[in-house]
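The methods section describes the discrete structure representation at length, but only in general terms. What matters is that the chain and its backbone geometry are given together, residue for residue. For illustration, here is how one protein appears when written out as sequence plus structure tokens:
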Amino acid sequence: MISAGICASDGHIKWGHMKTSNLPMVLGHEGLALVESVGPEVKQLQAGDLVLTNIMSQCDQCKDCQDRSSNFCEKDGFQIRNASTNKKLEDGTGVWGFCRLGVFSEYVLLKQSQVVKIDPRLNKENCCIISCAVMTGFFSATNLAKVSPNSTACVIGLGAIGLNAVFGCKFNGAQNIIAIDINNSKKAIALEFGATEFVNPQELDRPVEQYLKEKYGGVHYAIECIGNQGVMESAFKALKPTGTLALVGVGGKTLNFPAIEMLTGRTVAGGFLGKKRSDEGFNQLGEMYLNGQYNIDRLVTHRFSLEQINDAFQLLKEGKCIRSIIVF
């Protein structure tokens, strides 16, 4: 491993928000690595290749993989956790890997489908965040929600994923991009990444959905990057009659939407990594970075050693970072 991002998805396990009996577990799924060696059946990679870790593995043989509009695989599809005999404690106890990866580790043994080869010219530290934060945010706007030119979109939750969703809305030509967060310190960078307005719901005298209805007549697209049930339902209420709600944040609640309001044409969409294939998305984003179209470096605000990882998670919990990374 070269570097790894500190993502709230890992935090949900660490903080006890997402319960699991699969312990002990190595967390971490957003990573940049150098291939040290390969097994005899590996044909697409070789020692020395720079790779990003991939939570949406694809076998490229099943029917799901043959559908180029999907990034799901019926064989290697997304799994939060999976047993691994490749990690063991000194007493022989098996260790689980988050998302089958567990990249908060100096070395990791993965399948060929769990990594994607990328351009070696990419930043050897910062670009680890392409594999989750950048990929998820950008393609949730451009590919999952399919934001259209001259539209009105709101992005709720301005962490690393939300800011990339803001940029995705700008990239696709949205006219009004409302960035929503209760942390006013996120305003400047939200505007920098393309937001046309910043709204703090706690400073409004009415519900945020009412504000959006009154000012814009509702939004064509709402991208929810928190995973909070109440926020998701509020975002749905803010939609225009034919609007789309894109669910990005990790949440475990049941949502309630009036069926009659769906009949007008409202859509609720979901998908890991913006429903984009990693082999295509990672390299597209890498090219944009190298061409100066995407300021990924701006999103990395803090760096830590592996020994400081608890400090990194605390900073995330306090909302005092955009993206922190572990540099090995």
